Amino acid sequence: MSIEEGRALYKGKQVVVLGLAKSGAAVARLLKACGADVTVNDKKPENECEEAEALRAGGITVICGEHPDDIVNPSVDVVVKNPGIPYTVAPIQAAQSLGIPIVTEVEIAYELSDVPIIGITGSNGKTTTTTLIGRMLEEGGLHPIVAGNIGTPLSEQTLQVRKGQTLVAELSSFQLKGTRRFRPSIACLLNVYDAHLDYHKTKEDYVHSKSKLFKNQEETDVAVLNYDSQICRNLADDIRSQILWFSTKEEIEQGAFVRSSEIIFKRPVTGALAEKLDEAPEEERVVRLDELALPGAHNLENILAAVCVARAAGADIEAIRRILRTFAGVEHRLEFVAEIEGVKYYNDSKATNPEAASRALTSFSAPIVWIAGGLDRGIDFKEMVPLMRQNVKAVITYGETAEKLLARAEEAGIIRAKRVDTVTDAVAEARSIAREGDIVLLSPACASWDMYKSFEERGVLFKQSVHKLKTSP
């Protein structure tokens, strides 16, 4: 759908946007441009609603400091909620009781976009894979715009995108839960682990939210799935689009896998994608594993998924090859920060769950001083104990989960374990413990929201603290 068609869809409609974050401000502007009567409501006080005055200047009503009892009423046509707002808050409950549609800005962006959308989701690896796909498409001359959960709201890019371009969107389960008609032309599910259960309440709801990525796809669309995940294989029975699989363990009939330390891509021999790639060999050798610039064994999953998506989108194999030989990773994901006195410091602040942190811990053979902690989501971290026994020499922890992680360190037999107040304190403590040849790794295994606004803020503070070590005695 185009902006012109969107004007017809939303002109004169009463829309309430809940949550004045980046995505809330972006979708409010988009809907206003389509002629909607938009009210933005945020419970934060006025002085914390940075976008409020600018939105008011554009003719948008903004209410801060509370959720008025009548903010959602029978005259409201649709509620667009910030993905992180739980469905238990009063305005959402009111909308549900009145039968008013509740969506996230991803749904609005899709409705008002007339270019293909590639959607990427998963418990871990979304940002790396999304960035990698964007680089591959750019190298292949396909003019992608990377947006979504990765930083720029999808609805903000809807006003900028032009025909001939492609939107490449990182999508969270929070965003996907609030979709109805959303239909990406290529949809990729990397993996599903226990995560965000404080929000979803059950794993079934979490998986269902992820699977909405495929719900509206048709036979001409493409789904990219992890063959090594039983959950992904279970979902395949209900997917109507053509499936490309990726696997780090087995050779598969169509998709990407590893054979003799080399990445192989096999295209389908039937269906719409087979016709699109009919000039390519049925089997393509991509790169040897020792040519990959992206570190970490866990990243092989992300690389295979990106190869499938980029090939399905039309990127040529040479463009994919060039990127795989040069792309070294993204900020806050196993990011090398510095080497000081023979100790290497890595920022993995984006590891917001135990599975992601586990992957980081298994990426090194050297002794690790592990910095972890953050928001308590009810996880017990028992699965971390065997990994801690392998090569973690010390644990430094902070935040709401500190006592749990200290208990697991004791269970793992780690003598050097200490609680500190902040990430900055953790870096100082790590310096006193680490010796030449060690790794200091920030890989929190927890979200940041108990102490920091985002994992990015947490990662930046870690890096700043490390760089200050260079100048301190």
Automatic annotation (TrEMBL):
It is an enzyme of class 6 (ligase). Belongs to the MurCDEF family. It is found in: Cytoplasm. It catalyses: UDP-N-acetyl-alpha-D-muramoyl-L-alanine + D-glutamate + ATP = UDP-N-acetyl-alpha-D-muramoyl-L-alanyl-D-glutamate + ADP + phosphate + H(+). ATP binds at residues 122-128. Residues 120-310 form the Mur ligase central domain. One of its GO terms (molecular function) is ATP binding. Its EC number is 6.3.2.9. Residues 332-446 form the Mur ligase C-terminal domain. One of its GO terms (biological process) is cell division. This is UDP-N-acetylmuramoylalanine--D-glutamate ligase. It comes from Aneurinibacillus danicus.
